[in-house]
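Sorry, explain these tokens?

___
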Amino acid sequence: MKRLYFLLSFVLLLLIASCKGFDDSPKALVNVLLIDAPAEWDSVIVEIRGVELDFVPDAREGTVEKIFLPYEPGDKEVDISQLVGGTALPVARSEMHMGQISGITLRLGTKNALYLDEDRYPLDLPGGNTDYALPLSLDLEQGISYDLILDFDLEKSIQVVNSSPLELDFNPTLSAFSGVGRGDISGTTSPTSIKPAIYAIQADDSTSTHTNSSGTFLFRLEAGTYKVYLDPKNSSYKDTLLNVEVKAGTTTTLDRITFSKK
């Protein structure tokens, strides 16, 4: 009987010890995704090291914690010019306690390059700066999964300084936002041999993208009315302008857009 008593006591102690190491506090799931608004290059390779979140825990107003989430794959050189038509790169994923994310920093490496006609052109970061901090405001609630979107706008990030020989200025231009309250514009253009630049314009602000190999493009935007301007980048075809309303949580799918010849 004494042996049974001691055995039960030992098992109870093990259960208590294991419970002390278990964190059952309320959490939210945070997914960090990278998308691209690409320029007209064959490919743009960017080295992704990870992201750092500015986090203010509940009941600790004014206390900002820095939480670094590494990009886990061994090959950290990513062709971000392929992130079009709804394709996104999962950069990091983590459970987090309740609180507010007040900012996000994309941490890059130095192995960045542009490829054009099989030629490689290095993209040097201005001043050697590898960290790009962006404002963000997101309150985390228990049991909710959140998408944090980093939009890397290559159209604005890469400028041609000299065309012959080709010289480039690389100044990463990004925006960050939560997927909460946003809506999508999805469309397809033809002929697919054309690689148009597509702009969603609202007042004095605009964002741009290109199509993938199937002619598909996608914008993720705040609710509102936008002018969608499609520049065929081909002098044989006419440009196109559309008015599109974006509703939160809804994908607005446009009829196929066929470019007309001049």
